[in-house]
Design goal:
Blueprint (H helix, E strand, L loop, with lengths): L5 H11 L7 H22 L11 H5 L13 H22 L1
Helix pairs in contact: 1-4, 2-4
Length: about 100
C-alpha cells in the first residue's frame, strides 16, 4: 500500500460512515487489502489497477466517496477515524509477520 496521507484517512473515514457500525471493521480491512493489492499491481505492471487505483487508500474509495467531510464534533466521524487508524496499525503489524 502506498504511504497513507491525511486525505486517505478522511476519505476512508467518510466511506466507513456510509455503512452500519457493525460492518465498518470488515469494510476497513477490505479497503486496506485492496489498496495493498492495487499497489502491488501498480509496481508490477507500471499502471494503476483499473478498479482499485494506484494503491492509495483514497483511490480505493474515491469513486464511491461523494460525501463531505464532517468535523470532529461528529462522534461517528471520530469513531470511524479511530477505527481506521487502529486497523492500519494492526495491518502493518500483521504484514510484517
Amino acid at each position: 500500500m502506498r504511504r497513507v496521507l491525511p486525505a486517505d484517512v478522511i476519505s476512508v473515514a467518510v466511506k466507513l460512515m456510509t455503512v452500519a457500525p457493525e460492518a465498518r471493521r470488515s469494510l476497513c480491512r477490505d479497503i486496506l487489502e485492496l489498496a495493498d493489492a492495487a499497489h502491488r499491481y501498480h509496481k508490477r505492471f507500471g499502471r494503476s489497477h483499473p478498479i482499485w487505483g494506484n494503491g492509495s487508500l483514497q483511490s480505493v474509495v474515491f469513486a464511491d466517496n461523494a460525501l463531505e467531510e464532517p468535523s470532529f464534533s461528529n462522534s461517528d466521524y471520530c469513531l470511524c477515524t479511530e477505527l481506521l487508524l487502529n486497523e492500519l496499525v494492526r495491518w502493518r503489524i500483521i504484514s510484517r509477520i
